Amino acid sequence: MGKRTFRVWRGDKDGGRFEEYSIDVDQGMVVLDCIHRIQALHANDLACRWNCKAGKCGSCSMEINGKPRLSCMTRMNTFKDDEVITVQPIKSFPLIKDLVADVSWNYEQNKKIAPFKPRPKDSDGNWRMRQRDVERVQEFRKCIECYLCQNVCHVLRDHDRKDQFVGPRFMIRLASLEMHPLDTEDRIPKIKDEYGAGLCNITKCCTQVCPEHIQITDNGIIPLKERVVSRYYDPILWLIRKIFPKKNK
Amino acid sequence: MSQSTAKTGGHETSFLSNRRTDKWWVEPILTGLGFLCFVVYTTWAMFQANHYWYDPYLSPLYSPVLMVDPSVPGAAPLKHAWFGLWPDWWPKFLPSSPAMLILLGPLSFRTTCYYYRKFYYRSYFMTPPGCGVTGVPQKKYNGETKLFLFQNLHRYTFYIAVCYIVLLAYDAFISFFRHGEFGVGVGSLVLTLNVVLLSCYTFGCHAWRHLVGGRKDCFSCTAGHEHLSHKGWSKVSILNKHHMFWAWVSMVWVGFTDFYVRMVSMGVWTDLNTWGGH
Predict the structure, then answer these.
(1) What is the mean pLDDT of each run of 10 residues along chain A (249 residues)?
(2) A166 in B contact zone (CB under 8 Å)
(3) What is the ipTM of this complex?
(4) C-alpha–C-alpha distance, residues A85 and A102, integer Å
(5) Could you give phi then psi for residue B220, rounded to 5 degrees?
(6) A75, β-bridge pairs
(7) Which of A157, B6, B14, B195 is 20 to 30 A from residue A179's alpha carbon, by CA?
(8) Residue B178: what pLDDT?
(9) What is the CATH number assigned to the segment(s) A2-101?
(10) pLDDT for B6
(11) Do B152 and A233 touch (CB under 8 A)?
């Protein structure tokens, strides 16, 4: 495929700059292969997080020509021959070094979510679910925690509302728990107040960048928003709950 | 390079800054202009207050006809008006347009629709204008928690939209009868397609998807209802998957339907039909 030029961000929390590298690119290579070639030939100290090279571990998230992507799934033949490829770390989290960001804030959000709390087992000692009841949440289980959705979400990226919004990845986790047929925990009050569902304005960038093609907004966040509406903003349901408090909690 | 840029890994933080090399701005501009064209056309059509009827076709922008001024060219017959003649106290500076009384209903449904929210937050409010593109700087971003809290009433605007579907279905039905005689005209087909497209948009709505079954954690746990709620939710999900498509197609077709009725009412276009004559 010939020579290609990369502009790679080099630096740490104290400062940095873009550096240009020109390398030979072979047929079938992905951006992560090129980063490794740059490491091998030009910059042994270039920091880059990666693991599986198969789009399943979610480690190699970065911004390639301004788009949040997995570098191991971004093929070089998708770029024009003369295109300079700009590679940066993800924006929404603190930079550690070069292409590596500190995503530990996400682990803290996960700890805030009440865990799965199943109903009591059936009389024969088993839990039973039908496939049609559980298949909705199986989509959410495809998440590889690459945090590309967290990175592109403008609530976290532009407005830095990390104190008010857990982000799309954890809205999906909440959806997978709330819609689970066996789960009995009620997380709706926290979804409204602590996890910040109201801050999402449905611009769907999280869905656009998801490498697992999870319909984050349509199947996760919007259904959760509708559940919040049923609980807090629907005047008729509010009235019904007042008249029949037990049945409609 | 500034220190602030350096700390963010080479990311600028000013309005519209980005490093995307694709034409990310095409979609927000096209959708923004497209919707603006529709708003301009419907506003213009609403203020015309004429040529909204050509027997037996009624423009969807003027349905239902609450009151009518029969002296206006292309006005609906008096028998179609729910409340009879246009009142004398109506201010002279406002046209006697039935559309002015009813357009708020469908407009409220579209403006609170989850798809439209995506498009106008991007195109008009620029929060953000594109993915990975820095949006309008705000002192404190509140999303849909303060000013836009009204978006939570979308399910009520859905109920209103369903009423319009019923009315437009009736209009489509009577468009096959001229003076009691059954027939088919191009206008009948245009009006029928209009109600079909609007139904696909309305019944693919996220609020309806929630109400019909999405609100349940378990479809099979309520004896006797499992098939109904799961089937309903599944069918709505099929429409919901293409909600954007239905939103645009139905919106354009509403405008075209009004335009068609207007053109045949003005005598610019001839309606091909089985009744013959005009």
Answers:
(1) 94 93 97 98 97 96 97 97 96 96 97 96 91 93 97 96 96 97 96 96 97 97 97 90 72
(2) no
(3) 0.91
(4) 23
(5) -95, 0
(6) A30
(7) A157
(8) 94
(9) 3.10.20.30
(10) 44
(11) yes
Pairs across A and B, CB distance < 8 A: 157
Strand (E) or helix (H) holding A101? strand A100-101
Q: Are strands A95-97 and A100-101 parallel, antiparallel or unpaired?
A: antiparallel
Structure tokens at A196: 């910040």
Distance (Å, whole) CA B187 – CA B200: 20
Domain that holds residue B37: 23-266
Residue B120: inside a domain:
yes
Minimal C-alpha gap between A235 and chain B (Å) = 9
Residue A158 has its nearest CB partner, among B117, B135, B148, at: B135
B122: Cβ contacts below 8 Å, ≥ 6 apart: A203, B27, B28, B31, B128, B129, B130
Q: Which pair of tokens denotes residue B149?
A: 């809290």
**Is the residue at B55 inside a domain?**
yes
Maximum pairwise Cα distance, chain A: 74
What does DSSP assign to residue B123?
H
Contact between chains at A63 and B132 (C-beta distance less than 8 A): yes
* Cα B204 to Cα B206: distance, rounded to the nearest angstrom: 7
pLDDT of residue A53: 95
Task: For residue B87, count CB atoms less than 10 angstroms from its CB and return exposed for 0-12, middle for 13-18, buried for 19 or more.
Answer: exposed
Beta strands at A100-101 and A61-64: parallel, antiparallel or unpaired:
unpaired
Q: What is the pLDDT of residue A26?
A: 96
Q: How many domains does chain B have?
A: 1
CATH of A104-243, picked from 3.90.79.10, 1.10.1060.10, 3.10.20.600, 2.40.30.10, is: 1.10.1060.10
Q: Nearest CB to B155: which of A86, A228, A229?
A: A229
> CB neighbours (10 Å) of residue A105?
16
DSSP state letters, A159-181: S--TTT---HHHHHHHHHHHT-T
- Residue A119, both tokens: 């109903």
Query: pLDDT digits over A18-33, tens only?
Result: 999 999 999 999 999 9
Give me the average pLDDT of each 10-residue run along chain B (278 residues).
Answer: 57 94 96 97 93 95 92 90 89 85 90 96 96 94 92 94 97 95 97 98 97 91 74 95 98 97 96 84
